[in-house]
């Protein structure tokens, strides 16, 4: 045994399944499963627009929110997307620099920005949004109509209790 190996702590045995401190079975853990599904679907869409427009997933989400809700502040974009404020701020800086988002000030409050898509931003949005809808249809086609309705109800119910929703 090497000197280094002798200093390593002995691994702790995991708690028995079913107890509060047992290792998470990630394959059955709802947040993990939702994350995997979201990441898989989002990345499939992102692969195309990242190549075409040099657009990150965060930038696309910001653009999609601004297309739906004109005149939001950066804070409101972060709240609506449940994304980190710093990530949203960086994405907005890139989008403004690239001429895809316009930033103005709110009336006489110089501290509050009002954000909107520029014409160049709308062109990208109008190309990417149909691709996103097509990917969504590919996922949902695996469900029958009743299952799609239940999925919508379940997601609405789960999201209703979350912050910012």
Structure notes:
There is one protein chain. The protein is mostly helical. It has one domain (49-165): Orthogonal Bundle (Arc Repressor Mutant, subunit A), CATH 1.10.10. The chain is 61% helix and 9% strand. It is built from 7 helices and 2 strands, in the order αααααββαα. A two-stranded antiparallel ribbon has the order 1-2. Strand 1 and strand 2 form a beta hairpin. Helix 3 (57-68) crosses helix 4. The protein starts with a helix and ends in a 5-residue tail after the last helix. The mean pLDDT is 88.
List the quaternary state of the chains: single chain
| Computed structural class | mainly alpha
Question: Average pLDDT value?
Answer: 88
Considering the protein shown, what is the CATH homologous superfamily?
A: Winged helix-like DNA-binding domain superfamily/Winged helix DNA-binding domain
The global form is globular
Stretches with pLDDT under 50, minimum 5 residues: none
What is the level 1 CATH name? Mainly Alpha
Strand order of the largest sheet: 1-2
The percentage of residues in β strands lies in 5-15%
Number of helices: 7
Helix content: 55-70%
Q: How many beta strands in the DSSP annotation?
A: 2
The CATH topology is given as Arc Repressor Mutant, subunit A
| Total individual domains | 1
Strand-and-helix sequence, N→C? HHHHHEEHH
Q: Report, as a whole number of angstroms, the end-to-end distance.
A: 56 Å
For the largest beta-sheet, the strand count, sense and barrel status come to: 2 strands, antiparallel
